[in-house]
Each structure stands twice: as structure tokens, then as C-alpha cells.
Task: inverse folding
């Protein structure tokens, strides 16, 4: 009889440890999503700042400059709900400007374009990391044990934004 009680207590303790392990893992995944989003957001903010610098330079004509400035300000100050549309708009404006700017010889302007190109590469990597983090977290949160025992607590389900699929 004592052996059965000890076995049951051991199994309960083992299950409690497993739930604790899952909760800790889920917490780390949520932290990873938040960190990857913070990194991506800072890169996108920097891209908008460079877009404003490009708009103020001689790279763009007045009409393109106005369009680029508007798109950059929209991207910098967009709410979470409007962020996808604003970032897609900025990507489009930058794409149009970069296609039109072929005769640039000023060293400062070339540096701006080089920095923008490097930043675009970093943004692509940051997007891939963020999407992977969100996917992993959503996968873990879909498990029945996580849902049944509410191990996610009150943390919102992480989502990806539409612009992450087609930025740049």
C-alpha cells in the first residue's frame, strides 16, 4: 500500500514538474517574441529615419521627396493596427526611389544608399527571426496541455504582421 501511494505521489510530482517545465519554456518563447519584435521595430524605425534623410538629400526630386517623407512619417508613427500598411507603403516608396536613382556621385548620398541597403538585409533577417519565434510560440501554445492548464496565463497570442511577408 505504501508503494502505491509513493508511486502516485511520484507521478503527481513528475507531472507538476512537467507543467512547470512547459510554463517556463513558454515564458522563454514569449520573451523571445518580444525581443525579436523589439529588434525588428528598432530596425524599421532606423529605416524610416534614413528614408527621411534620403528625402532631404538631392537623391530624390521634390515629388518623390514629399512621398518618401510622408511614407516615413506614417511608418514611424503608425499604430499597431495600421503598421502593416504603413511599412508596406514605405517599402514601396523606397523601391520606387531606388529604381529612379541611378546617377548618384555624391559620397554622402552613396553612404545613405549603402546604409539603407545594409539595413534592408538586416531587416530581412530580423523578420525571419521574428516569424520563426512567433510560429514556434503559436505551435507550443496550440498543445492541449498548454491550453487545458492555461500555462500561457494572460499573455496574448503572438501574431505576425502582413508587411513581414512582403517587406522589401
Result:
Amino acid at each position: 500500500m505504501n508503494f502505491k501511494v509513493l508511486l502516485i505521489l511520484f507521478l503527481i510530482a513528475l507531472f507538476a514538474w512537467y507543467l512547470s517545465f512547459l510554463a517556463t519554456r513558454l515564458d522563454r518563447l514569449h520573451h523571445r517574441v518580444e525581443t525579436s519584435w523589439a529588434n525588428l521595430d528598432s530596425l524599421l524605425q532606423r529605416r524610416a529615419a534614413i528614408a527621411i534623410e534620403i528625402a532631404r538629400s538631392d537623391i530624390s526630386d521634390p515629388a518623390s521627396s514629399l512621398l518618401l517623407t510622408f511614407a516615413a512619417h506614417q511608418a514611424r508613427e503608425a499604430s499597431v493596427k495600421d503598421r502593416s500598411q504603413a511599412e508596406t507603403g514605405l517599402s514601396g516608396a523606397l523601391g520606387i526611389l531606388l529604381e529612379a536613382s541611378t546617377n548618384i556621385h555624391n559620397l554622402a548620398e552613396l553612404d545613405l544608399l549603402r546604409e539603407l541597403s545594409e539595413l534592408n538585409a538586416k531587416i530581412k533577417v530580423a523578420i525571419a527571426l521574428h516569424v520563426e519565434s512567433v510560429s514556434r510560440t503559436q505551435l507550443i501554445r496550440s498543445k492541449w496541455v498548454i491550453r487545458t492548464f492555461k500555462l500561457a496565463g494572460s499573455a496574448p497570442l503572438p501574431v505576425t504582421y502582413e508587411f513581414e511577408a512582403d517587406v522589401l
Summary: The two ends are 68 Å apart (CA to CA).
